[in-house]
Amino acid sequence: MNLAEVFGYVASALVLATFTMRTMIPLRLLGIASNIAFIAYGYADDILPVLLLHTILLPLNIYRLAEMYRLVREVRNAEAGDNDMRWLLPFMTPVSLPAGATLFAMGEAADHMYLLTKGRIRIEELDVEVNSGAMLGEIGVFSPHGTRMATATCIDECRLQRISRDKVRELVFQDPRIAFNLIGVVTGRLIEDLRIAEARADRPEPRPAQ
Description:
This protein is an alpha+beta fold and 210 residues long. It has helices at 3-18, 24-44, 48-80, 138-142, 165-174, 176-202, and strands spanning 93-97, 102-104, 112-118, 121-123, 128-130, 135-136, 152-154, 158-164. The protein has two domains: 3-80; 85-202, Jelly Rolls (Sandwich), CATH 2.60.120.
């Protein structure tokens, strides 16, 4: 067995190994290794088509690997970030509501989520106010039944940006950074709701007048 055959068998084994990979980064790493082995094989045995093919594939695999590492880094940054949702604005449409208007009611279909840009809104069931910059309706959008968990009423004249449930899901599928940001927003809202519920439970009941 000559050196060219050794390179050929190693390259073939590496290609076979790529089919056992379940995630993209190990697959790309094995792809790069197989490209290098095939380049050596094509050069050593003077097989021009193999040499040209893997000379083209090698930088492509390196580029895709760099993309994966960059995406992993961005996801980690999103996970550790402040979950500022203003990056959704390019995908949203404006909505204006007068004071006293109901943005959504408990039990309704959750077909949109909202970013409040001006005014105040009361979450009736929790008896809390939310101010400009707050995200609203995100729990209903991601709930199993897709329904509103509470009623939201405008205290003042309100301006909001809204995005449809379908568009949110499309963005989540396209970019995992968005999924991590939304997980942070939904989790933060659930923790805040739990804190409010616990505070109410600890509050003493008013005694009836004697």
